[in-house]
Amino acid sequence: MTATSDDARTRKGLLRFLTCGSVDDGKSTLIGRLLYDTQLVLEDQLAALERDSAKHGTTGEDLDLALLVDGLQAEREQGITIDVAYRFFSTPRRAFIVADTPGHEQYTRNMATGASNSQAAVILIDARKGVLTQTRRHSYICALLGIKNVVLAVNKIDLVEFSGERFHRIVADYLGFAAPLKFAAVTSIPLSARFGDNVIRRSEHTPWYDGPTLIEHLESIDVREGLEEKPWRFPVQWVNRPNLDFRGFSGTVASGVVRPGERVVVAASGRESVIQRIVTADGDLPEARAGDAVTLTLADEVDVARGDVLAHADARPEVVDQFAAEVLWMIEEPMLPGRSYLMRIGTQYVPARVTSLKHKTDVNTLEHMAAKTLALNEIGFCNLATATPVALDPYADNRATGAFVLIDRFTNATAGAGMISFGLRRATNIHRQALLVDKSARVRLNGHRPAVLWFTGLSGSGKSTIANVVERELHALGVHTYMLDGDNVRHGLNRDLGFTDADRVENIRRVGEVAKLFVDAGAVVLCSFISPFRAERRMVRELLAAEEFIEIFVDTSLEECQRRDPKGLYARALEGKIKNFTGIDSPYEAPQNAEVVLTPSPLGPEEEARLVLEALRARQIIGS
Amino acid sequence: MSTQSRMALTPHLRQLESESIGIIREVAAEFRNPVMLYSIGKDSGVMLHLAMKAFHPSKPPFPLLHIDTRWKFRAMIEHRDAIAERYGVKLLVHTNPDGVARDINPISSGSQLHTQVMKTEALKQALDKWQFDAAFGGARRDEEKSRAKERVFSFRSAGHVWDPRNQRPELWNLYNTRISQGETIRVFPLSNWTELDIWQYTRAEQIPVVPLYFAAPRPVIERDGQLIMRDDERMALKPGEREQVRMVRFRSLGCYPLSAAIESRAATLDEIIAEMLASRTSERSGRLIDSDEAASMEKKKRDGYF
Lengths: 624, 306
Prior knowledge:
The complex is a heterodimer. Chain A is an alpha/beta fold.
């Protein structure tokens, strides 16, 4: 054997495809068949399979090939596939990664997961049953996730006496349904995964079929997605700074091609520079193409950070803070318009809200229906707004810069997956202008740095009292301050808000945005709000730079607060006269990483204020 | 080690390399205190090599961690120390002191207890001791059935618990790296590599590997149908056992009493790759700890094993 003949398979690009279909259509059996017939099943695995077939198998004396792929113990016992499994096999012509995705309705999110990284889909149909609800759902998800190549695998053809008539009727049904989904290619193949007909071996039982076997077809699919012909996009992943002489921007080219000497732009800020070098551990490259993980250096010292997208100056992505997108919901708790989620797009996390849910789509009929929320596995067309402008492209143009996920801010669960349709409003162009007076200029003039002091704690804990003393002291030191609390906010800016959960969230969001403006103006802003939920406090924290948010937990016990009860509120809450009162019938989530924790001091609020000022000096917000 | 001249990567290996580099960089960018588990094997070798490439001209911004059970082949420990020196990376080594005190070992304690105490428990101790919030592992999805379903970013709740039913969906390459205090992530940059890819990449990039992977005349004993190399005096011969020199190599390396050798004449990377293409057994078949029953890897993973 020569040095290179063993990797001939790797010259033709890798093909990633997923298999989908409804329960019992035989997906796992089909993949088991592919592994078995391409001789990827090894002797010790075969021995395990023989043992398992006897114990759990459903095929009598034969090997149950599905047991090869149903990995987790629980599902082996239940006989269903509950998660996405990735399988690897290769033929002399090509290497494959198969995502085996579940057919069960509640696991639709896993199918979308498999589809998101696949270039082709094999949709299985049980020849006895024809096109089912799940077939439609899966086809729609494949289309939604941008899969262009579909193989309609009409399985168990042996159980309908290898009937060509039956096959053609199913194909016609399917094509009728799938026409609006606009797949680039649908290839239909009659096969039997259990016996291997038309999988790798051409079947003598289907003389009426003269198309390719499944494997022949998969080997021939063109996987080039035209990514290199698309505009160049480079989401900056990591700033590489080994010493003062080198500042590189590491990341993976999402699309297009870039070369040294080309003029590029930081999409969000509009700042321009020129590519100097394309650095890799194997030496500098003359060009970097879609998929290449490289490090770029620029000719100028421009401000670039993780999350920025670099593009050619003459082919920029949209930079917007509002856009329309299809959203697939993936957790039990429903998607609520108005709630803040964390959006991950490219290499960036940014707070985002669904501002309106236009409709949801019935995956069986593709009809649009009005809806107020999205439940698990539902798909809706939404408008979203982000806290700061983001660079993006429509998903149909670019999978890498048009896709996002939404993360629950409280549980950190991956809650939704989104595909951007179009930008709604171009972000204001102020970011593209170099501001003549910026935050750092104001800091120089003020002689102190801006910050938000966020006082959180139970009602009656002493937040406002301490905040007042802190403000008095800061003022005496010549620090520009402003106090935001329930009184001056609820009566004006937030007069339209009540006390429902959604309104409380919006209340804090607005307070956060106002505080941010004051910080931009150079002030130290004291915010005094019970703010019982971690998610909302975190939302405000993320609006600001890391050193600008100082969470001060006024940690006075519930018993002590009840004892103090300065406004008589606890007494009334305990009598049931006030509903949703924090600490009584509504929870308070104590901070886990507050910058300052204040427990009641025998010396009173003056002492507690002193501790806050000390913390501000330690952080060099104010001078010492 | 091979002395062939370096070959250009095939598009397939370049694609895998770029993907893995992207994953490794992501961890450095998002986590406070990551660590790379280094098991000295061929997969760890590739993973470390990728990390060096990912951050060039910087060094990887995280240390290596080796969980030393005290029963690794001597050649592995030599290789480990030489590699840390050669790459100029920080190497942390942890051994479970409780296990040492109780004299847990693979021979008299049994493979299951030894693995639990000296590997799984030791790993958790080390992660807690240094407060790591993300740990790279070299596991591949093609190794074993329960690993085929593993995420690239695998979420562990406080106490390092892996719940296969409560893993985050991973769409595109948009990994959800958010965790709360006490929670950790295990990251598998080699998820999409196969054993063949590992060897072909090792050859193309001339990555140093432990010489035990190459066939050589070595003293072995036959025990329970497996060839075991007696690496030191701690492993006593049973009645009737005798050492004999055979031409063997290892496909997978671990604690020496638990790693079976195969008879082979493959003494170069080319020969290893050729042998593997013709082989009809999987690489983990030489791992004595996997064979209790088919689901045993899943059980170990739930306990916190890599």
